[in-house]
Specification:
The complex is a heterodimer. By secondary structure, chain A is of the alpha+beta class. Chain A has one domain (about 5-150): Alpha-Beta Complex (Sufe protein. Chain: A), CATH 3.90.1010.10. Helices cover about 40% and strands about 20% of the residues of chain A. Chain A contains 6 helices and 4 strands, in the order H-H-E-E-E-H-H-H-H-E. In chain A, a hairpin with a 2-residue loop joins strand 2 and strand 3 (about 55-60). Chain A is globular. By secondary structure, chain B is an alpha/beta fold. Chain B has 2 domains: about 50-60 and about 325-430, Alpha-Beta Complex (Aspartate Aminotransferase, domain 1); about 75-320, Aspartate Aminotransferase, domain 2, CATH 3.40.640. In chain B, the strands form 5 sheets. Chain B has a 7-stranded mixed sheet with strand order 4-10-9-8-7-5-6, with helices on both faces. A 4-stranded antiparallel sheet of chain B has the order 13-14-17-16, covered by helices on one side. In chain B, strand 8 (about 225), helix 8 (about 240) and strand 9 (about 245-250) form a beta-alpha-beta unit. In chain B, helix 2 packs antiparallel against helix 10 (about 305-325), helix 3 crosses helix 10 and helix 12 (about 370-380) packs across helix 14 (about 415-430). Chain B is globular, with a radius of gyration of 22 Å. The chains are: A alpha+beta, B alpha/beta. The interface of A and B includes residues 3, 8, 62 and 68 of A. Bound molecules: pyridoxal-5'-phosphate.
Chain lengths: ~150, ~425
């Protein structure tokens, strides 16, 4: 049975409607574009760094509810974290998304990210859920050029 | 080569004869409920709900006549064509040649034109662009195409233009999704060598006036290449009347199998064109000093062709002819009108592509939800549609949107199926608005 309500948790619908940290940041240290060629989702991530620690982050662009909510939630989770911590959290998130829909969730490590567990039923939407994260990690590495969900993992 | 099937001895199995008679209701009209019984997949359910398949522009389902023709071929004949003296190979060759004749009939081939079997519409367009375009285009020449082309009728021309120095010029489209014919007229000149245009837009549903486009192109000496992938399954296409130089169709969008397409072309042009791929079956003789190519269509069918697929496609074409393309068109036009009216009642929904001449494609956006999310909610209700840019990104740019959700109709759709669609669209509003 597909219950799309399990995919579109209330928290996701809320972040989609009222995204946090949505908008440009004129004094950003890094601006990184992320693009999902499959559905045309495209976001810009604005990042201010203090050494390798995220000082502030915002995003703008357009995308589906999953990608927008994921970007929004991400901006609330990474502030004050070091690059390695952000990467670790992204790794935990990706592993969860790729896991069997029936397998138990490590809610402690995932924290708020567990609202995306419904995505496990819809593997094509993993790219939506991870688009902003890919862009953020690229920004943390101050990578050149836009990132795409079609390059690498 | 085109030996009639009648030459086959009596013990040869036939793969194309067992086609059901035209499915008409008692009053002589198209009987969609009877037609639906020919398509096994339509009776399945999705997440416990009846499947409502509205993604026919992506691909169509296959009637039993197609499944059985291909199955029968593999069970009773299966051999390579044009190469064996044995009975099975001669049978296979007969079926393959007969399949071509069926498609000539389906498309109303003009005198002096050929049909080449390819691996798909995309391959057909690449073949024309590379072989015809590659041999005639020079620096300073122009190739006109339209803003509503599928990527498969853009990228091959970009590639050949980059190689030859010819210029690619897109013909604009109007706000309702029609081709800007005034702009087209003003862009025509002696420099234009090719006009490549879609018959029906897969993203907007627009039906282009091919006969007029063709006549105007011929006035300046240009050759006309038409992408008929979305037209051939949905309306009568008579190539004698359209007067085009090349026409392309995709088997799997015509209720036939994947892995096969059609390239229709003028024999005099095909003869002058260099072969595209080399190999077996496309030659008369090969030596290290000199290879002599076969005549078209064989010249462009290197290697073992998609034999079972050709047989399946011929079965599909026969099935369509038995139903009658005019009947199918009338049915789908009726569906299109009903659908357009019902969708207009959904608040915050906007249809892209409102040209006066349309096929059964309805692309739309909703102010409350992204196309991808709409597609997902519809899927949960058993309604299959497509969300995205539909391999027509210039159309999306033209209308300033990243993507649309697209409903596309087929001959087996019914008015009643729209209840599930409209219900699901209201669910989208409840969730996202
Ligand atoms: C208008 C049009 N042209 C060409 C194609 C390409 O067909 P295929 O991918 O089967 O080669 C499509 C398929 O989506 C189409 O809609």
């Amino acid at each position: 049975m597909s219950d799309t309500r399990a995919l579109y948790e209330e928290v996701i619908l809320d972040h989609n409607k009222n995204p946090k940290n949505f908008g440009s940041m004129p004094d950003a240290d890094v601006v990184q574009e992320g693009y999902n060629p499959l559905c045309g989702d495209s976001f810009k991530i604005y990042l201010k760094l203090d050494g390798d620690t995220v000082q502030s982050v915002s995003f703008e662009g357009h995308g589906c509810a999953i990608s927008k909510a994921s970007a929004s939630l991400m901006t609330t989770l990474v502030k004050g974290r070091k690059r390695s911590e952000v990467e670790e959290l992204f790794h935990v998130f990706q592993e969860m998304l790729k896991s069997d829909p029936e397998s138990p969730l490590d809610t402690e490590k995932l924290g708020k990210l567990k609202v995306f567990s419904g995505v496990r039923e819809y593997p094509v939407r993993i790219k939506c859920a991870t688009l902003a994260w890919h862009a953020l990690v690229a920004a943390l590495h101050q990578q050149e050029g836009p990132v795409s969900t079609e390059s690498g993992s | 080569m085109n030996r009639p099937l009648a030459d086959a001895p009596a013990d040869s199995p036939s793969v194309t004869s067992a086609v059901p008679p035209a499915v008409l209701s008692a009053n002589g009209n198209f009987d969609v409920n009877a037609v639906r019984r020919d398509f096994p997949v339509l009776s399945r359910s999705v997440y416990g709900k009846p499947l409502v398949y509205l993604d026919n522009a992506a691909t169509t389902h296959k009637p039993l006549a197609v499944l059985e023709a291909m199955d029968r071929f593999y069970r009773t004949s299966n051999a390579n064509v044009h190469r064996g003296v044995h009975r099975l190979s001669m049978d296979a060759t007969n079926f393959y040649d007969e399949a071509r004749r069926v498609l000539h009939k389906f498309f109303g081939t003009a005198i002096g034109c050929e049909i080449i079997f390819t691996r798909g519409a995309t391959e057909s367009l690449n073949l024309v662009a590379q072989s015809y375009g590659g041999s005639v285009l020079r620096e300073g020449d122009e190739v006109l195409l339209t803003w509503m082309e599928h990527h498969s009728n853009i990228v091959p021309w970009q590639m050949v233009c980059a190689r030859t120095g010819a210029k690619l010029r897109p013909i604009p489209i109007l706000d309702d999704g029609s081709l800007d014919m005034d702009a087209y007229r003003s862009m025509l000149s002696e420099r234009v060598k090719v006009v490549a245009v879609t018959h029906v837009s897969n993203a907007l549903g627009t039906v282009n006036p091919i006969a007029e486009i063709s006549r105007l192109a011929h006035d300046v000496g240009a050759v006309v290449v038409v992408d008929g992938a979305q037209a051939a399954p949905h309306m009568p296409v008579n190539l004698r009347e359209l007067g085009v130089d090349f026409y392309v169709a995709a088997g799997h969008k015509m209720y036939g199998p994947t892995g096969i397409g059609i390239l229709y072309g003028r024999a005099d042009l095909l003869e002058r064109m260099p072969p595209w791929q080399g190999g077996g079956d496309m030659i008369l003789s090969v030596s290290f000093e000199k290879t002599v190519y076969a005549q078209p269509p064989q010249k462009f069918e290197a290697g073992t062709p998609p034999i079972a697929e050709a047989i399946g496609l011929a079965a599909a074409a026969t099935y369509l002819m038995n139903l009658g393309m005019s009947e199918i068109h009338r049915h789908e036009q009726h569906l299109l009108r009903t659908l357009t009216e019902r969708m207009a009642e959904v608040p915050g929904l906007r249809i892209l592509g409102t040209a006066p001449q349309k096929a059964g494609v309805v692309s739309f956006v909703m102010d409350c939800a992204h196309p991808h999310d709409i597609g997902q909610i519809l899927d949960g209700e058993g309604v299959a549609v497509r969300a995205g840019h539909h391999c027509a990104q210039p159309v999306m740019q033209r209308f300033g949107i990243p993507a649309t959700t697209r409903v596309s109709l087929g001959l087996y759709n019914t008015d009643a199926e729209f209840d599930a669609l409209i219900g699901a669209l209201h669910k989208v509003r409840r969730m996202f608005a």
